[in-house]
Amino acid sequence: MGRKPAITRSAVVSAAIEIIDRDGMDGFSLERIATALNVRAPSLYNHFADKTEILSEVARAVVLETPRIPDPAPGQWRDWLIAESLEFRNSLLRHPNVVPVVFTWFPENLLHKLYAQYSRLLGDQGVPLSRQLFLLEATHRMTVGSAMCTATGRPALVELPPNGSVEPSEGTSVAVRDADEALFVEMLRAFLVGVDVEGGN
């Protein structure tokens, strides 16, 4: 009978996310992960080739936290795409220190799978094939870019402070954070309404 492994891939990824959430990338190391799991650092190489593979799995795990939105009713694909994008952005911002990791090591194979799935859905909604990838790639970039700005301390400037400085005071920074999500939704909606889908809904 084989001996049960001391650690698993999922445990390593969970420990890595917890460390980055708490201490940022400056606190991330194989030694810190091993300590959290009460093992020796070289044992991690039984599960991962190197640190890059761990970070790739961290990015994948955070992306997969995003809940799915029910398929849209006829003619409601714009609202559905906004809701999907907002859920993804919120999932990223639950781990602000991990957002740069997701940005760098985004799971492209997962993205391609989602694009294929979402393209079929948009096609069922009457969005022509020539516009499907454009819509998905544009909203994806807007979502990741917005999350990256917010996670790294640069939320959208809703309005300039009265003195004209672009550095918000403590009071204005709270207002900016509160309005950041609403501005993201407004930005997406303006983009989607302005896209010519050649007779799509």
From TrEMBL:
- Example of a GO biological process term: response to antibiotic
At which residues is the DNA-binding region annotated? 29-48
* SUPFAM superfamilies, per database record: Homeodomain-like (SSF46689), Tetracyclin repressor-like, C-terminal domain (SSF48498)
Residue ranges of domain HTH tetR-type in the record: 6-66
Q: Which PROSITE patterns match?
A: HTH_TETR_2
For molecular function, the Gene Ontology terms on record are:
DNA-binding transcription factor activity; transcription cis-regulatory region binding
InterPro entries to which the protein is assigned, alphabetical: Homeodomain-like_sf (IPR009057), HTH-type_TetR-like_transc_reg (IPR050109), HTH_TetR (IPR001647), Tet_transcr_reg_TetR (IPR003012), Tet_transcr_reg_TetR-rel_C_sf (IPR036271)
Keyword terms: DNA-binding, Transcription, Transcription regulation
What is this protein's record name? Transcriptional regulator, TetR family
Report the source organism: Rhodococcus wratislaviensis
